[in-house]
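User: quick one, sequence for these tokens?
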């Protein structure tokens, strides 16, 4: 067993280096950033290392050269006499508080200002937060003889936390406008500015006022700034990969393949340099399990409700039919009811393809962890009481499939559809029916081999386990006999003619009037 320390949940670069934890060297990027004299903005999903990135930048501007020993930037700065000089730093960590209550944002900013005023003095504590910040920039620059560094981590959390409270969200926007506007007008007192967030809210004054920010979210040069690339995975984590493979009783090659399928697939630029989710990867190495770690903090409820309320076609998440431009996915508007831009920015969708000639992206799920985790959470919005142990949950249905219990399977699926909330809108129910059926078979694909075909009006599916093969044909306002006849006419069972497993042909009918599974026949 190796004794290397995995930095799970560690956001402090100084702690990581002093405790001799594993660090994927990103300091070539740091060198490029700090020597450009440009104010930056970067958007990345949660759990992608944005806080560690800002902590690394903070350590650099503090002049803590000893923390960078052996890293790429040490050699890059070797002949630079001006390197490793400390600068006055104003680091705003907006991720440390919940903002659902009134004046929470002001309290966080006030706490930050009090800390810095204890260092640089306070001209007038009765002034507004914005004036106090401006005065601090001036005094810090005058006292040290150097311009200031401003780092803002998760700037948008006060906005995302209040997205369901328009009044409070507008209030926080106004606070941003007044407080951070000086980052443009006080340029002579600034050496470096870097802002991170999950989203880039359009029409939020931190961007409309700070139009000098260089947004590197889609920049090809910085595509690997956060996350772990394939090369970095193989270069830095082979001992962990080999140890995990041994624990799972699989080959190293198979382990690499499963890691890629489960946690890779994020693309943040047109050059399609894929990156792994670093948090999930480290958790998988620590537990030696291919778990769903990114969803430990849950999926935002407002996203799920938005998808449900607009009758969004969830099949498009997987079939490559979401096309979008960079402008549309980079500037999120609260009033825009289309959830796709926010789904991309929050990490549920990623760039699957880029058409250079037409200059648009195709979006899709990045990996299995996100796909199955997202549908698992979304299913709870469409049907009631589908948690584990309910009998109509995915694990219960999986168990019945693996044991050949077709009667129990019928009861579980019947109960699942009976739990769909009643709606008098026929079009909405048709959408619910198709969506729940699609999500059911997609989620089962996590545990068994699932070949899923979808087209207007029906879904047919083939499930395979070690001992059984199930061929489903589902009808709406038809009959189970019609469904079975179609299985025969289309010769769906022909590929399994020589298969030794037990084969079940299942015809199902759903009635739109009663909104129930009314027929189930097994042949």
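Assistant:
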């Amino acid at each position: 067993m190796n004794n290397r320390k995995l930095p799970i949940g560690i956001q402090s670069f100084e702690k990581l280096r002093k405790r001799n934890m594993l660090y994927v060297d990103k300091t070539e990027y740091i060198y490029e950033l700090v020597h450009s004299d440009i104010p930056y903005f970067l958007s990345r999903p949660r759990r992608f290392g944005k806080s560690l990135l800002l902590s690394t930048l903070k350590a650099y501007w503090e002049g803590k050269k000893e923390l960078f020993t052996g890293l790429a930037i040490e050699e890059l700065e070797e002949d630079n006499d001006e390197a490793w000089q400390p600068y006055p730093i104003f680091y705003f960590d907006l991720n440390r508080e919940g903002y659902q209550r009134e004046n929470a944002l002001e309290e966080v900013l006030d706490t930050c200002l009090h800390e810095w005023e204890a260092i640089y003095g306070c001209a007038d504590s009765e002034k507004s937060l914005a004036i106090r910040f401006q005065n601090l920039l001036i005094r810090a620059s005058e006292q040290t003889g150097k311009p200031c560094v401003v780092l803002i981590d998760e700037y948008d959390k006060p906005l995302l936390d209040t997205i369901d409270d328009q009044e409070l969200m507008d209030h926080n926007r106004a606070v941003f406008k007044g407080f951070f506007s000086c980052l443009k007008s006080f340029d002579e007192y600034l050496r470096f500015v870097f802002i991170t967030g999950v989203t880039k809210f359009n029409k939020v004054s931190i961007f409309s006022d700070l139009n000098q920010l260089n947004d590197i979210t889609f920049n090809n040069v910085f595509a690997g700034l956060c996350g772990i690339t394939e090369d970095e995975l193989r270069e830095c984590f082979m001992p962990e990969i080999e140890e995990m493979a041994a624990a799972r009783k699989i080959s190293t090659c198979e382990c690499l393949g499963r890691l890629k399928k489960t946690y890779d697939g994020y693309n943040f630029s047109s050059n399609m340099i894929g990156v792994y989710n670093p948090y999930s990867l480290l958790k998988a190495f620590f537990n030696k399990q291919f778990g769903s770690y990114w969803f430990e903090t849950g999926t935002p409820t407002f996203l799920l409700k938005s998808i449900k309320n607009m009758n969004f076609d969830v099949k498009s998440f997987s079939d490559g039919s979401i096309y979008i431009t960079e402008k549309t996915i980079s500037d999120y508007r609260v009033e825009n009811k289309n959830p796709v831009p926010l789904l991309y920015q929050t990490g549920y969708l990623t760039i699957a393809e880029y058409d250079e000639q037409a200059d648009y992206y195709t979006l899709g799920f990045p990996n299995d962890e996100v796909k199955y985790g997202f549908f698992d959470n979304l299913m709870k919005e469409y049907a009631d009481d589908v948690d584990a142990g309910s009998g109509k949950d995915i694990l219960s249905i999986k168990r019945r499939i693996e044991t050949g219990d077709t009667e129990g399977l019928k009861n579980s699926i019947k109960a699942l559809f009976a739990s769909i909330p009643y709606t008098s809108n026929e079009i909405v129910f048709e959408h619910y029916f198709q969506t729940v059926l699609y999500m059911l078979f997609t989620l089962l694909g996590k545990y068994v081999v699932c070949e899923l075909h979808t087209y207007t009006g029906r879904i047919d599916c083939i499930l395979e386990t070690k001992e059984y093969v199930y061929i489903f044909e589902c009808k709406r306002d038809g009959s189970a006999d019609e469904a079975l006849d179609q299985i025969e006419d289309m010769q769906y069972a022909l590929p399994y003619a020589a298969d030794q497993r037990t084969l079940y042909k299942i015809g199902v009918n759903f009635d739109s009037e009663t909104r129930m599974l009314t027929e189930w026949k097994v042949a």
